[in-house]
From TrEMBL:
Gene Ontology biological process terms from the UniProt entry: CAAX-box protein maturation; proteolysis
GO molecular function annotation: endopeptidase activity; metallopeptidase activity
TM region positions: 60-82, 112-139, 203-220, 227-247
UniProt-recorded name of the protein: CPBP family intramembrane metalloprotease
InterPro entries membership: Rce1/LyrA-like_dom
Organism expressing this protein natively: Arthrobacter terricola
CAAX prenyl protease 2/Lysostaphin resistance protein A-like domain ranges (all copies): 147-238
Pfam family, any one: Rce1-like
Sorted UniProt keywords: Hydrolase, Membrane, Metalloprotease, Protease, Transmembrane, Transmembrane helix
Length: 254
């Protein structure tokens, strides 16, 4: 019975990853190989939040659809956690992962501190990666300037934060523990996955995101809450996406 349960959970994890960040990791590796066989990585470019139509309202529609459908695997995760609860486990999936508003002030402060802790070294690592030629030029926003550009970029940042922290940290560490894996191994594997789906940006972002994963994983095992991680990740991406969109051209970027 225990073996059957473990097999079910492994299949469940493969389904979730195949529909979300595991799929992204595979594409990222292929994109990295594509870039490396075209030209040196330093000459490559990675554009986030790309425009999907030259027509303003079709572009807006595509952006919102992308954000909405990217969150479906998160809904699937909480569905699987709800199945656990019906089998006798408690509390709810949201409480188990700490994805709720039970302590908004404390989560916000911890998220702000984490964003500062991760953000400044990330900029330095990006600069070093560019200097060493192992990181592509990263353009955080390729959207045209419309009235909806900034709100969509904020939604995109929150989307990335929720998908990554709920699935890669909260959900995977929960499932890895059920596999009987040690906490250090679970954190390392989670961090490797986080780094791997950033490989299309080069090896610098792979290293930086893996380190971020190690820090976030360690903090989660202490707090059992993904909400501070979601706050931190959202802040980091909002600063990058919106800051580039608003000030990039003014300071000669893009």
């Amino acid at each position: 019975m225990l073996l059957a349960s473990t097999r079910r959970l492994r299949a469940e994890v493969l389904i979730v990853l195949g529909l979300s960040l595991g799929q992204s990791a595979v594409y990222s590796v292929v994109q990295l190989l594509d870039k490396m066989t075209r030209a040196p990585l330093a000459q490559g470019t990675s554009t986030l939040n790309q425009s999907q139509s030259p027509r303003e309202y079709f572009d807006l529609t595509y952006q919102l659809l992308d954000i909405a459908f990217a969150l479906v695997p998160v809904v699937l995760v909480f569905y699987f956690l709800a199945v656990d609860r019906r089998s006798g486990e408690s509390p709810s999936g949201f409480a188990r992962l700490g994805f709720n508003f039970a302590r908004p002030g404390r989560d916000a402060l911890q998220g702000l501190g984490l964003a500062a802790l991760i953000g400044i070294p990330s900029l330095a690592l990006y600069a070093v990666g560019r200097a060493l030629g192992i990181t592509t030029a990263i353009i955080p926003s390729g959207l045209d300037t419309y009235w909806w550009t900034v709100p969509v970029l904020i939604l995109s940042a929150v989307r990335h934060a929720i998908v990554e922290e709920v699935i890669v940290v909260g959900y995977l560490l929960d499932r890895f523990a059920k596999f009987g894996w040690s906490t250090p191994l679970a954190i390392v594997l989670s961090s490797l996955l986080r780094g791997s789906y950033h490989l299309y940006q080069g090896f610098g972002p792979f290293i930086g995101n893996m380190v971020m994963g190690l820090v976030f994983g360690w903090i989660y095992t202490r707090t059992k809450r993904v909400m501070p991680l979601v706050v931190a990740h959202s802040l980091l991406d909002i600063v990058a996406f919106v800051g580039f969109s608003v000030f990039g051209k003014a300071i000669g970027l893009g």
